[in-house]
Each structure stands twice: as C-alpha cells, then as structure tokens.
Amino acid sequence: MTKITAWAAHEAGGSLTPFEYDPGPLGPHDVELDVLYCGICHSDLSVINNEWGFSAYPAVGGHEVVGRVREMGGEVSHLTKGQTVGLGWHAGYCNTCMSCQSGDQNLCQTAQATIVGHHGGFADRVRAQAASVIPIPDGLNPLKMGPMFCGGITVFNPLVQYNISPLSRTAVIGIGGLGHLALQFLNAWGCHVTAFTSTPEKEEEAVRMGAHATLNSRDDKALAAAAGQFDLIISTVNVTLDWNAYIGTLAPKGRLHMVGAALEPMGIGAFGLIAAQRSVSGSPVGSPATIRHMLDFAERHDIAPVVETFDMKDINVAFDHLKSGDARYRIVLKN
Fold this sequence. Notes:
Elements lengths: L3 E5 L8 E5 L8 E11 L1 H7 L16 E8 L11 E4 L2 E3 L5 H4 L10 E2 L11 E5 L3 E3 L6 H4 L5 H11 L7 E5 L5 H11 L2 E6 L5 H6 L4 E4 L3 H6 L4 E6 L7 H5 L2 E9 L11 H5 L4 E4 L5 H14 L5 E5 L3 H10 L5 E5 L1
Helix pairs in contact: 4-5
C-alpha cells in the first residue's frame, strides 16, 4: 500500500507542509477515497490552531471531502468503485450505542471525527468508515458539494429535528459560510426568512440568496421593533452577541438555535424564556440519513454554496484568505 500524501500542521498555528503517512491495512467496513475536492471550514482552522484544546499533531485537516471510491473493505456492499461520494465531520461511528441504533449517529459520543485523532482530506486520499460516506446525486456539481457535508448539513439539520413548518417566520444571524446556505434552505423550505446582518453591503446579496427581509443587527431600535416575530432564529456566528435582545424577537414558543461555536457563556435571563415558553438549543452536523435527505432536497431546489477555488498546493494561501474574512462564502481546494 502506497503512503498517503497530505498537508499537515506540526504545531499550533503552524503553516501546512507536505506530510506522508502509512494508513495501514484497509478495514473490512472502511473505504479509501481519492480526494477530488475538499472544502476549508473554520473548524479546520480551530483544530490546526488547537483553539478547542484537543488537537494532536501532525494535524491533517479537511472534513468537507468530495472523493471517488478507490478501495472498499470486504464488508462494504452499498458503494461501488469509482462512485463519487462525500465525507463530512464524522469518519466513523460506534454503531452500537442507543444514538447510533436510533438513527442519530451524529450524536454518538464515541464517533470518530475526521480531523481529530484521524487524518482528514487535505490530502490525495482519505479513509473512513463506509457508513459515514454518502453518495452524491448526479444532479449536483461535485466541485461545490464539499461544504454541504459540514456547513450545509449544520444548518439543514435543525429544520428536520424540530419539524419546522413551511409557515414559520425565521431569521438567520450571520450571513457567511453557514448563513448563506441557511437562507437558501429556509426559503426553499417555504419559510419567511429575515437576514440579520451588520454589513450593509451584504443586504442585497442576502435577498438574492433567499432572504425576504434584512435587519441591521447593530440597530437596537430595529431589534426592538422586531419583538415577538420569529418562530426560529438560527445563529451561525462564533462571537458573543446580546442574546437577550435576540430572544426578545422570538414569538411565543420560538427557538434560538445555535450552530455557530461561540465560546463565551451566553448570559441569558430566565424570564425571557419562561414568559413566552421560548427555547435555546444547539445541534451538530446530521446523521447519514439526514445528509442524504439534505442532498436530495438540494438537488430538487438547486441549492449549492457560493465557492472560491484554490489548488491543493496553494492551501496556505487559501487559509490566509479564510483568515482575512474576505471569503465569499466557502473555500474549496481541488486536487
């Protein structure tokens, strides 16, 4: 078996340099993919920089993989060699816990992350448990599909988990890599969609991507005027905001749902929740079944991320572009 050639960080905050490793024998339930494309997510940057405190080096990021099935273990029967597939945040599950057996593999507490304790898709090849690899429908452009396996499923999953009605009034905080996909999904779901943004130049673009209205999140009067409006707000940002102000814009039984990894405590007052039976919740990526559902929905409604592409060899340039905050809206590396 030839070694896998990857791009790895060898210390927190370090540049990515070429790295080879021997993946060992292919397990009976595993697959090996030739990496065609791999998105860059802010979570890759967090792992490379050890922002969450559990990174191991050398660290090979890349969990928004689109690849072609190269080899399959002897127990894999639902995939075929040469098939175009995607791999997201999870590279494997225990398959025996209650979450896995209930179809909620994304909640498996011992699931194998693709880029933590495992080498990811910033490489020529990558391995994963076949159960975590999802075929990409023919009607979707593979070049753009990598970000759907993290950013896309992250914002699609709550629509399924909470049985969001197409009559719901919804809003999205943060119109970036996650938010621009949330606008598309919510609009196609049938919801009325408002984009919260602090960047006026993004307002017109937010409307083109599915928002029916925009609201300046830095305008306290505008927030106050929106009191009691929204059945669901999806927050995609990783910074601390005045969460009580946003909770005040929720309708009775409304939900503020967190998918952005804001690290500071939220400081929420109980009465804002109790008086109108509001909720605050969060969720990770989705199960394999929900990812399949998302891809079918995206194919039907022509939903895809807005991407910028870089060659894999220019990975450090691509990361600098991500860190600049100028990416519009997802970055994809191509081999």
